Structures are given as C-alpha cells and as structure tokens.
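Section 5: illustrative case.
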C-alpha cells in the first residue's frame, strides 16, 4: 500500500494464497514489485490480508479501495479426504459459491478490477482415453467435470460487469515436495514406485516455474480471456511418467498399483483422478506465443526434484 493508505495501481487480490499454487504466485508477484492483498479465512494478521469466509458480503473499506486484478484459487483440497457426500459438497461450495460471491463483489466495486483469473482444472475434460484435447474440446462427464463447468460459469457476474475473466485449467502441477509429486517421490525413492492401473492413462502436467510464468503472462495480456489449459505441451502416459520419475531418482519402478487396489483405498476418487486419462494441450497459450521453459518431463522433473531437495 502507498503511504496515504490507498492501493497502488498494481495491486492483486489473491484468495487461497496459502496453498501450493498461491504461495508460488504470491512470491513471484512480490518479486516483480506487484502489491499483493490476500483473502484469508482466519482473522487477518496484517494490513495486506483481508478476512473473508467465502460467503459473507465483501464490502469493507479495505475492499472498496479496489484492485488491478484478482486471482481466485480457493478450494478444499480434492485429494485430502475420501469423497463422501459431505466432502463432495465442500469441494463444490468452496469453489463454485466462493467464485460467484467474489465475482459479484468485484463487479459491484466502484472501480472493478481489469481482470479476474479463476482456478479451474483439466478435470473439466473428464476421462477421454487417447483423445487430444484443447480448449475447444467439449467438457466431459463425472463429478470433477461437472464441478469445473459450474466453477467456470460461476464467474459470470464478473464477465457481465466487463471484467476480463480467465479460467486457469491447471493440469497436474509438479512442485517441490508438494502435491502429486510430493506424494509420489518418497515411495519412488524407496523403490516402491510403479505405474497406476494400466499405466495407459494420459497425465497432463506442468512444472511450477512454467505455471507461474503462464499465470503472469495471462494477467498481463489484456486481449486474452476465457479458458486456458495450463499444461506443458508434451503430456505423457502414466507409464511414461513413472519411467521418467524413476530415471530422475535412479530407482527401479516395477511395483504396479492395480486399479482395484486404488479403488479400494481411495473410492470413486481413484477413477476420476489417478486412473483418469486426459491428453490436454496448451493450445491457446501456444497460439498466444507463450514460451515454456520446461516443455518436456525430462526437462521439468529434475528441476522440480532438485528444488524439493533444497
Ligand atoms: N495443485 C494442482 O495440481 C492443481 C491442479 C488442478 C487444479 N488445481 C486448483 O487450483 C487451486 C489452487 O490449487 P493448490 O494446489 O494451491 O490448492 P491447495 O494447496 O489445496 O490450496 C488451496 C487453498 O484454498 C483454501 N481453502 C482450503 N480449503 C478451503 C475451503 N474449504 N473453503 C475455502 N477455501 C479453502 C486454503 O487457503 P486459505 O486457508 O488461505 O483460505 C488453501 O490454501 C485449487 O482450486 C485447485 O483445485 C490445482
């Protein structure tokens, strides 16, 4: 904030900023000299935080000062619990309802932000075997596909107010010691890794450095709106991913996890996440001229593993 307590023109409001993606984005924005104000669910701890439960009105004085952009990343972690009815509701509400409420609040500001970036996921395409998917592909079926469709639609109040809305359809994010890679790496290090199910399902992944740069690129591209697949240009099958991770860690990876065992352990989540196939291309990012620093797994994986070791 400036000394007279108004936000600088480059101030970005972020929700879910304590999460895996939010932490990396927050750091990159700050390094670039951009002001960051976080929406937090707990009581705010300093002037650059604002408490919000995702439901109540957002009309305090701090909020009314406005922002140049908003990035909405909140959501109950999809892999944190088994998908019983109550947790499915929490996964949905923490995304769809909060997006609608935030979009309405931003739209009602005296000076709405120029852009709202909202998280979404390649889960919107559902389970599509070997089909090559881009942003023009129709959504698929299933809990995650329905969720993502409703999540994206929930930003409509912002669009109606003339705010540029971008849907960040994230693939599997490779991050140091966190997310999917954080769960797999310890097993692989012990030589207990292996393909999941048939191993033929496609994984559309992205390294964290490219994810951060892609989000900054979209933040600063006034002509770009709508859905963007935030994935590397070279998706791989689960078997290829397994081989690449084993190679990078210098370990064998022969212990296949059969689909029935994954279903037993995780319930329906197994079919929609680990066993689901989505061969997704970042077509609109490529068309817009975005350059990937880690376009292949053999380039991106060692960097992610090395970062985890530090
Ligand atoms: N990581 C991936 O591979 C990936 C892939 C596809 C899509 N995405 C999507 O991208 C977004 C960010 O991902 P992430 O990996 O950074 O997620 P994350 O690490 O689980 O963080 C999400 C953040 O959302 C907030 N949150 C947690 N539970 C919530 C609830 N019940 N209601 C409202 N807010 C809640 C928390 O922030 P506060 O405590 O600060 O509020 C949390 O830090 C998510 O919506 C996720 O679904 C991620």
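Designed sequence:
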């Amino acid at each position: 904030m400036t000394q007279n307590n108004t936000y600088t023109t480059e101030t970005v409001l972020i929700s879910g900023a304590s999460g895996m993606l939010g932490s990396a984005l927050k750091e990159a924005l700050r390094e670039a000299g951009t002001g960051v104000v976080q929406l937090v669910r707990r009581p705010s701890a300093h002037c650059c935080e604002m408490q919000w439960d995702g439901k109540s009105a957002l009309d305090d004085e701090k909020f009314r000062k406005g922002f140049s952009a908003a990035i909405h990343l909140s959501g109950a972690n999809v892999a944190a619990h088994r998908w019983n009815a109550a947790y499915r509701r929490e996964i949905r509400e923490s995304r769809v309802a909060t997006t609608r409420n935030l979009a309405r609040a931003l739209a009602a500001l005296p000076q709405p932000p120029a852009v709202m970036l909202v998280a979404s996921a390649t889960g919107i395409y559902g389970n599509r075997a070997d089909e090559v998917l881009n942003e023009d592909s129709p959504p698929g079926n299933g809990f995650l596909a329905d969720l993502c469709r409703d999540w994206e639609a929930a930003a409509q109040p912002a669009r109606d107010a003339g705010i540029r809305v971008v849907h960040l359809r994230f693939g599997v994010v490779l991050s140091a010691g966190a997310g999917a890679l954080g769960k797999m790496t310890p097993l692989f290090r012990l030589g207990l890794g292996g393909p999941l199910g048939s191993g033929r399902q496609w994984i559309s992944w992205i390294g964290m450095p490219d994810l951060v740069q892609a989000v900054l690129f979209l933040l600063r591209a006034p002509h770009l709106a709508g859905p963007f697949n935030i994935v590397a240009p070279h998706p791989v099958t689960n078997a290829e991913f397994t081989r690449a991770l084993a190679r990078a860690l210098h370990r064998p990876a022969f212990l296949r996890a059969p689909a029935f065992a994954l279903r037993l352990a995780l319930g329906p989540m197994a079919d929609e996440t680990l066993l689901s196939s989505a061969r997704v291309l970042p077509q609109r990012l490529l068309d817009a001229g975005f350059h990937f620093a880690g376009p292949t797994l053999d380039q991106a994986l060692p960097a992610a593993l090395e970062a985890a070791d530090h």
